[in-house]
Amino acid sequence: MDRRRLRFLGQSWLFWVAVVLIFLVAQWVLIPRLTEFRRTAWVMFPSIMAIICLGLNLIYGFNGQFSLGQWGFYAIGSYASAILTYRYAERFTYPIQGITIDVPTVLQRLVPLAQVDLFRFDAGQSLFLFGAVLLGALLAAAISAVFGYAVLLRLGSDYFGIATLGFTIIVQVLLINSDQVIPETKGARGMVGIPQMTSFFWAFFFLVLTIVVIRNVLYSSVGRAVISVREDELAAKAMGIDTIRYKTTAFVIGSFFAGIAGALYAHLYAFLSPIYFGFVKSFDPMIIIVFGGLGNMTGTLLATFLWAITLEGMRIWLPQGFEAWRFVVYPIVLLLVMLLRPQGLLGKLELGFLRPPKWPQRAKAKAEAPSADARRETPEVREAIQ
Amino acid sequence: MSQATEQRPMVLDIQGLSKNFGGRLTTQGYEGGLWAVRDFDMTVAEGELVGLIGPNGAGKTTVFNMISGLISVTGGDVNFQGQSLVGKRPHAITQSGIGRTFQNIRLFPQLTVLDNVRIALHPHAGYGVLHSVWQGSRFARCERDLTEKAQDLLAIFDLEDRQDEIGSSLPYGEQRRLEIARALAGEPDLLLLDEPAAGMNPQEVHALMDLIQFIREKFDLTIVLIEHQMRVVMGICEWITVMDFGQVIARGTADDVSSNPKVIEAYLGRQGKRG
Q1: Which of B13, B61, B2, B60 has its CA nearest to residue B41?
Q2: pTM of the full predicted structure?
């Protein structure tokens, strides 16, 4: 590998330039053209969903562990960070003046704004949100480490699925009764008054972070160990892979990102209700990753946005009075996709930097070992046949 | 065994190894159930090539699975280079220097040939999760060393131009070679080959025996080989242990074993007892 080029998180500078360009275009060209509702439902919410789905894809798609517990970790991340910001975020404020630039009239057709604010944000609040999201995610990861180690050690894959479903239900019940310990959560009535701090910047930032981290882990020796468990657990053990360790690793990383997604979700709608964290919703990420193709990161990203845009878009596209038919159309679409493309939308196709890195092949030298095919006939072989 | 082998240090020493499936544990030991292996003894000295043969269902693979820790041991002891392996987890047993192949080839089916070998090199990777996230210089160096080691192995087995192909898409003989290459990636001292000649025609069997002799010398290995066709192992194994119904019925050199009446009975059956 050429190490002379500038690299950050293992990606070339071209990658990061592209990320910044995509962000700028989305921030100033796409976002101002969308209504408040569509901005949230079509861009920010699916970005957050993509984070939890990529984490689940690592667990189920790459490691082969059927987990319905990610929704529980999503809930843990959201409530933990929401309580932090609800209590303390106000105290941390440090507004930065920023620069306001007038958009030239020529460009106003492209950027539908007369003025663009650069670097105008509240540094104190932003840093606090960043910290709260990380703390929420770390709490989710810590709980998943304990739970994963206690349960994964003892249970096979199917039972693990049931156990994780149980975990999601336990978390929901705890949240319903949580106001007895933490009054701010208001239990079953739902938590209100969370500062609405998730901006497009943060949703995008954490989505890119998730993609890069999961991609980097997967295309390393650790990732190959994780994938070997899905491929053939017994053979992996016999090749010296500590399967319990790598099952736990994948589970903890996936749950960490579920926690991040939850924390961002809490600050997106500024309202949390234990009803949303019920087990019926916990199937959504599972549906998305199967839809996009198990073990396919590009597919997961595409499927998350398609899923969110279709589901919310149908409110607009379906004729007046037929909005409730969304949940008739949605399963039919899913059914059709499963029938026509059982391997998921993209199958094995990965795009761009999500493709596995290839190593140059060696030039073919004369083999040292005798061929076990023995297509050639030696005198001994002829003797053996006779 | 003979005096020549006593001078060489023992690599594998199995005493009274037993496996009971489905039995009930009582104060007098196991009651009922099936004894897949019972009181199995075997010693293998360094550098030997030992055959373990017996008819189908004799318990040969169960012995291998107990050595490599994939199933638990009911009784007895397995000593490898002076350390007991009983109760150790399979990956730890592999890392202590035992490589194995499987009867029905168990590659990682959807992964490339190169990745199949690189997974077996993982215990020697030299970096952890955080290095892989950051992908700094240590990651780059370790990953390059790892891949080069894997490519060296593939080159030995004439598979280097297949590195980007999917493991399960290779022809049968190449899958066998890949599985052996993968087992050797962990740098084992002892290699367990479980019916490497299964499903091969006489030409292929012959070539395979050449290959086994070659890797034995090249990698300085001790090899235990399972086979149920006696003919296959006669030519290359120094010592042969014959099993039937979970017990050892004969051991010795190829000539001793092939003339042993118990072995002939196990293979050909006795009139009125087994067909």
Answers
A1: B13
A2: 0.91
